[in-house]
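During the second half of the funding period, the structural biology subgroup turned its attention to how the target accommodates small molecules. The most pressing case was manganese (II) ion, which had performed well in the primary screen but for which no bound structure existed. We therefore specified the complex as follows and requested a full 3D prediction, including the ligand pose.
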Amino acid sequence: MATILTLAGDGIGPEIMTQAIEVLKVTDRKFDLGLTLESGLIGGVAVDATGEPLPEKTLEQARNADAVLLGAVGGPKWDAIERSKRPERGLLKIRSELGLFANLRVAKLYPQLANASSIKSEIISGLDLLIVRELTGGIYFGEPRGIRTLDNGEQQGYNTMVYKTSEIERIGKVAFELAQTRAKASGKPAKVCSVDKANVLEVTELWKQTMINMQQADYSDVNLSHMYADNACMQLIRDPKQFDVMVTGNMFGDILSDEAAMLTGSIGMLPSASLDEDGKGMYEPCHGSAPDIAGQDKANPLATILSVAMMLRYTFKQEQAAQAIEQAVSDVLDDGLRTLDILDSSEPGLTQVGCQQMGEAVLAKLSAPNGDTP
Ligand code: NAD
Ligand code: IPM
Ligand code: MN
């Protein structure tokens, strides 16, 4: 018996979570997984209910659960409150408290969506890219940080970008090993591109050298390359298929993954897994709470549904169940169903659907006896 904590959060969080939970329940029944679901509060809704973006009770629930599924947090309602109480701080704290240092963000193009991206289809066709983002260190957590008043009365904001060798080594290990696994599955050479600003920042000079040392000592079968973050942003658009696994720090990974999302058609398609050293994880879409479309049944629930597949794959080692969900997503795309963010209005035969209808269509595919297509 395993327990999953669901944290819907704010904005479109509850809408996408409702659909993902149904998918999880049906998959649980179909594959006899023995899952129990529990829900909790995080983000702005938690601030409203308890005064804290990550109440102690939620943290306790998360520690006791086998995995966590998260929607999204944040929104204009909480943007002006004291910094330590903002919804985003709740998300950062749960990542840090649970030790979820390895964030895997998969940018895989479903071929049905080749025309939904703003990038030419020949540049992205066949794309399957993994960004390994360090998630509990770097400039997001470095001290000192704050806003101070200088002697002349002017204010100054400051943050500190820090990485210890041990932090770089543990995320490097994840990247090298995933590159090896992916190479075994694809038959292609294992490749890791480490993204840094070693030309400017000492912290990333250490990052780069540590990656080189690791490759030489333990991963000589993996082809390691290095790229400055600014060039990497450009190369992702110019020729994204040159990359297989990209490994980088917290902030560069945040930025590169939103960019990579557009290669798949929409940020609404990008799932993620955030793992600790034992493979326990929190799973969440890469996008935010999308306040501009919240409550309108317009959100794309597929990134969250695909995050459920990642949960079954990484935490529960249920590859078959994970693939069933990914196949169901592919099947509804085959049927031409599109939420607004992935709708290409020039393509004939597509049907615009809302968040709920998209979720229900995935469910229908999953519920069908094997081989049937409803
Ligand atoms: P966002 O990702 O919420 O939205 C950016 C754009 O993408 C918006 O136009 C939105 O409508 C669209 N979009 C996002 N997800 C979508 C989906 N599933 N389907 C269709 N369209 C989608 O980023 P933002 O606007 O910069 O941030 C909004 C709030 O979310 C902020 O408070 C931010 O801090 C927070 N945020 C939270 C997370 C998280 O919880 N992991 C991630 C990013 C941003
Ligand atoms: C993400 C988000 C978060 C981040 C914010 C909301 C703290 O943008 O999950 O990508 O920057 O990590
Ligand atoms: Mn982000």
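Two results from this model are relevant to the next phase. The chain is about 40% helix and 20% strand. The chain has two domains: 1-127+264-374, 139-245.
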